[in-house]
Every structure is written in C-alpha cells, then in structure tokens.
Design goal:
DNA binding; SIS_dom_sf; 11 helices; DNA-binding MurR/RpiR family transcriptional regulator; HTH_RpiR; Rossmann fold; 5-stranded parallel beta sheet
Length: 244
C-alpha cells in the first residue's frame, strides 16, 4: 500500500482549512487525478483560492502541477519493483528539469553583479552553508575577491567590509527570518546587488533583499535537508559556468 503522506513535505504548518484539504487528499489520492479544483473546493465547503494556496504551500505553482506530481508519485510507487531509490531519482530528475525555467532576468542580473563587484559575500546557515562556501571558493578560483560563511560569528565579522559596490548573496532553503537579519538587513538594503536564493516563493526574509531568485522543487527540498544542498550546487554551476 502506498504511503501517500510521504508525498508531502515534512513538518507542515497547516491552517485548519489546509488540514481539511490535506486529509481529503490523503483519503482519496487516486480520485485527485480526475477531479477538478472546483469539485475539491465544493466537497470541502471551501474556496478555490484556498485549494490553490494549499498547493502553493506544498511547493507547486498551482493545482494543475500538484495533480501532475501526485499522479507521478502514485505511478512510481504503484509497482513493487519500484524501489525507494528509483522513486527518489525520478523526483530528483523531475526537479532538475525544471531548472530550465529559473527566472532568466534574475540570473542575468546576478551574473552581471558577480562580474562587476569589488567583493562578493556568500552566506548561508546550517544546510545552506555548504553551497554558500562552495560559491565563494568557485569565485576565488576565478580570481575574484569573495568571502563565504556558514555561521553568524563570521558573518558579523565580515559585514563591516561590505559596501554598495559589492554583492551579497544569501542561500536559504525556506527563506524564513532568523538571527541573520540582525547582521545584514541594514547593509543589504543600501545595495542594488543583494540577492536571496531560496526555494520558497513566499519567503518572509525577501523583504530585506533587492532581488530574489526562487529555485524549483520546494516540496522536494523540504523533505530532507540533504536534497536542497545538491540543488543549490547545481544552481551555482549554472551561475558560474563560463560561456564558450
């Protein structure tokens, strides 16, 4: 029997309406492939907008993408021969393919900022720390002045070096506010070259940044702290690859 609950991100923060939609999908996963969003809303005595918000909270662009990914999940797990490893790889490949849809304008602005900036600061905490340091090391290899940090102590020491001619990049899986705001919000708001890289289109911390680049795969990224590290690294490869 397929454990449909594994399809959803871990540690969900659901409103009462979200909880009602979640339980309905868990109870009738197969039915979701053929039902309209209007029918779901009607069956649950809620609004179409509420169902759309639920799908976006799960990491999808809307109900249509949610249904497609749910159907793929059910197919990949319906046969006994499909191993957990195979399911993971299928999901990972699906997310990677979506990287072609990353905001081209935002990516171009970041590339230009990296090229023109005097100094580049690349920060991230916890599981976002490794990609932040990887970007800094890659830029240093390209003869740029770059600093990378994965902890608040180093960030607090580096921020006095930051000026308006520099670029600051913060990697954050969820984009939620935390203690890092204390050290960087006053500085980055003075700069045109501040970028948040996140999986969450509704990130609360994006108000401190001039630019936000949202990576695909929010639902996939939220399930495990390891997954988004590799996706961040894939983004860095796209960002720093030299054009031939």
């Amino acid at each position: 029997m397929i454990d449909i609950k594994k399809f959803f991100p871990k540690n969900l923060n659901l409103s009462p309406t979200d909880e009602k939609i979640y339980k309905y999908i868990v109870k009738y996963p197969e039915k979701m492939q053929y039902i309209t969003i209007e029918k779901v809303a009607g069956n649950l005595h809620t609004s179409v907008a509420s169902v759309q918000r639920f799908c976006k909270k799960m990491g999808y662009s809307g109900f249509k993408e949610f249904k497609f990914q749910l159907k793929s999940y059910l197919i990949n797990n319906s046969h006994h021969s499909n191993s957990e490893q195979g399911r993971y790889l299928n999901e990972y490949i699906s997310v990677v393919k979506q990287f072609n849809n990353i905001d081209k304008k935002g990516l171009s602005l970041l590339k230009k900022a990296l090229h023109k900036s005097d100094k580049i600061f690349s920060f991230g905490l916890f599981y976002s720390g490794l990609p932040a340091k990887m970007l800094a090391f890659t830029l240093i290899d390209q003869d740029k002045t770059a600093f990378g940090s994965d902890n608040l102590v180093n960030i607090s020491h580096l921020m006095p070096l930051y000026s308006k001619n520099d670029t600051l990049i913060l990697f954050s899986i969820t984009g939620e506010e935390n203690d890092i705001n204390t050290y960087i919000n006053d500085n980055i708001q003075k700069s045109d070259n501040s970028f948040l890289i996140t999986f969450n289109p509704d990130a609360s911390i994006k108000k401190y940044f001039r630019h936000t680049i949202v990576l695909p795969g929010k639902s996939f990224a939220y399930r495990s702290p390891i997954d988004p590290q590799s996706l961040f690294c894939l983004f860095i490869e796209m960002l720093t690859a030299k054009e031939e």
